[in-house]
Every structure is written in C-alpha cells, then in structure tokens.
Write a structure and sequence with these properties.
Layout lengths: L1 H61 L43 E4 L10 E8 L4 E4 L4 E5 L14 E5 L2 E2 L3 E8 L6 E6 L2 E4 L3 H5 L5 E4 L7 E2 L18 H4 L15 H8 L11 H23 L3 H16 L6 H13 L14
Antiparallel strand pairs: 1-2, 1-7, 2-3, 3-6, 4-5, 7-8, 9-10, 10-11
C-alpha cells in the first residue's frame, strides 16, 4: 500500500512540475508576442509620423509646387490608418490596474498633446486586457479596410470612420457631484478612483467593486451608470418555467444518485493520479503488505550455523553487560602510562642552591 501511495505522490509532483514549466513557457511566449505586437505598432506610428513630417517639410519648401500625394494607389487610402491600430496589445495581468471606468461612463481626455484634450464623451466599450476604451465621438479616424475583409460584407466601402481606442491612463471620469457650499450639481473631473468590494456579490466577483474618490473624506460613492435590463422573447419551442422548476428527483441516503460504474468512468479507474480507492482494493493491498511482512519474517527464521553462532555471541555479550575496571587493573594501566611517558614531559625538580 505504501508503494502505491508513494507512486501517486510522485506522479502528482511530476505533473505539478510539468504544469509549472508549461505555464512559464506560455508566459514567456505571451511576453514575446506582446513585445512583437507593440514593436509593430510603434514602427507603424513612427512611419506615419515621419511621412507626415517629410510631407509638411516638402509643402513648406515647395509651396504651390508641392506634389499631390492622394493619387495613384493612395488615392483613396491616403491619410488613413491600418485596422491593426484599432486593437491594442494585451497587457500582463500582474501589471493590470483597476481604473474603475466602465461602458456608459462620461470621461474627459486629459492626455498632453492629444487633439481631443478637454473634450467629454461617453464610453462605448472598455477593453480590460489592453487597458483602453472607445469614447463616442472622440479620437475618430478614417480606417482603410483591406479587400479580403470586404469579400463577405454587403458594405463595400473601403474607407470607414472609426473611434480609435484611447488608453485608460489618458482619460478621467466625469461625475456630477454637489457643490460643497451651494449644493448645486456640477460636473467634476475625478483624478483617481479607489475600488473596494463592499457586498458579498462584489467579493465573489459577480458584481464590479464599489468605487470611491481616492483621498476624499467622508468617502463619496460614485455609482455605476444604469444599464438597460436584458429582454428576451418567448417562443413556442421554449420550455415553460413551471416545467423547469418542477422537482422530478428527490435525493436520499439509501440510494446513490448514479450507478457505481459511472464513477469509474468519470474519475478513471486505473488512473495513476487516483488517491481514493474502494474498500475491496484497500483490503487487498493491506493483505499483500501483511503477506510480504510474513515472508520477511520467514526468511529471518532460516538461519545458517554461522548466523546462529553470531546470534549466540551477541546474546552472551549483552548478558555480560558493560565491563567494569577493577582497582588492580587501573593501577597497572597507570604504571604502564608512567613508564611510557616521554622524558621531556616528566615533571622537573628545581635544583637546590
């Protein structure tokens, strides 16, 4: 039985080690992919910026003789963005920060140098993995749709305006708060939000955590925007609620909820990870251990004459006990030690004057 338990423990440790190695490799591959995607986006941004700077410089130098750039292949796509720019790079969960902004909130752009800085808009969508949001009517740009994406679409327009995502770090929540003196509601830009789970549903993750204004006392709760309840239509093929809620099976302690053979199919009867066994199997293994111990005892009983002699000598030595040194023996040992003492270590007598 101990051999079986050791094998199960060893297999579990090996499986846990392999799972940790796979998780580490997956994290490493994900990190490389994020770096590669971010580098591609940065290359695209730098290319567009350099092309704009070059075009502006040529327009300033040449004036009316500057070339017309929206011709040829770039006639319709000049000045547009790639669809790749509409999707940000996923950030690792360890570096994720809870900004407390959800769809339906009103936010203001505060990023330095942004063309829509100071404008307020309503959040359409929030991407938590990339920490970015789409704000209605802000940061819009023309996007060139590739031809292979237009094959299965009814709208064949190659250039379409879209809201380009804005980082969550570039926006701040705008909430109506009463004036501390007059009590009149006015829009307030909240610099930082503090998230804290208050109810049981929030602790379980079923509802988003409550949000408060960081550093403000007393704590001011900022409610989430109201969402429209989901509506569903009943059809003839739908099951009636009364049939769904009808209790057709009552559990009892006298009868198992399923046949015993199904359990072996679910957990793997011969799995090497199994650590719960049937009573018959445990009794069989315990009986095997007892038989193995009996075999060891029978082997010990098979003694050769030499082993019997050694056992007899050990028994006699144990019966005699520890030897005791007599006074005569101690005196003889002292004489031998004094006789064998080197001359330089013997005590010296001072010479008389």
């Amino acid at each position: 039985m101990q051999k079986l338990l050791k094998r199960t423990a060893l297999v579990k440790r090996q499986a846990a080690r392999k799972a940790a190695d796979r998780a580490g490799k997956f994290e490493s591959d994900s990190r490389k992919l994020r770096v590669n995607e971010q580098s591609q986006i940065n290359v695209s941004i730098r290319g567009d910026r350099r092309a704009a700077q070059r075009a502006r410089h040529e327009d300033w130098l040449l004036g009316p003789l500057a070339p017309k750039r929206d011709v040829g292949e770039a006639r319709d796509s000049y000045g547009t963005l790639s669809p790749r720019r509409l999707r940000g790079v996923e950030k690792p969960k360890a570096q994720a920060k809870g900004w407390g902004i959800v769809a339906g909130d009103r936010v203001v752009v505060v990023q330095e140098g942004h063309r829509d800085r100071g404008k307020i808009g309503k959040v359409k969508e929030v991407r938590r993995d990339a920490e970015e949001c789409f704000v209605q009517g802000l940061n819009r740009a023309d996007v060139a749709i590739p031809e292979y994406l237009l094959i299965n679409e009814s709208d064949k327009t190659p250039i379409r305006p879209y809201e380009v995502p804005i980082p969550l770090s570039a926006v701040r929540l705008v909430a109506p708060l009463p004036h501390p003196e007059t009590g009149v509601l006015r829009d307030v830009v909240i610099q930082e939000l503090k998230l804290k789970a208050k109810s049981l549903r929030e602790l379980k993750g079923e509802d988003p955590p409550s949000r408060f204004i960081a550093g403000l006392k007393p704590a001011t709760l900022i409610p989430y925007p109201e969402t429209e309840p989901e509506t569903s239509e009943d059809n003839d093929c739908d099951t009636l609620r009364i049939e769904v809620e009808e209790q057709t099976w009552v559990p009892t302690l006298l009868k198992p909820p399923m046949p015993g053979s199904i359990i072996d199919e679910l957990r793997g009867k011969y799995s090497k990870f199994r650590d719960r066994h049937d009573e018959a199997f445990l009794a069989k293994k315990i009986q095997e251990d007892v038989e193995a111990e009996e075999r060891k005892k029978s082997i010990r009983k098979m003694m050769t004459p030499l082993k019997e002699l050694h056992r007899k000598e050990r028994a006699e030595k144990k019966a005699r006990g520890k030897p005791q040194l007599s006074k005569e023996l101690l005196s003889k040992i002292g004489e031998v030690m004094a006789r064998n003492m080197p001359p330089e270590t013997s005590p010296r007598m001072d010479a008389s004057p």
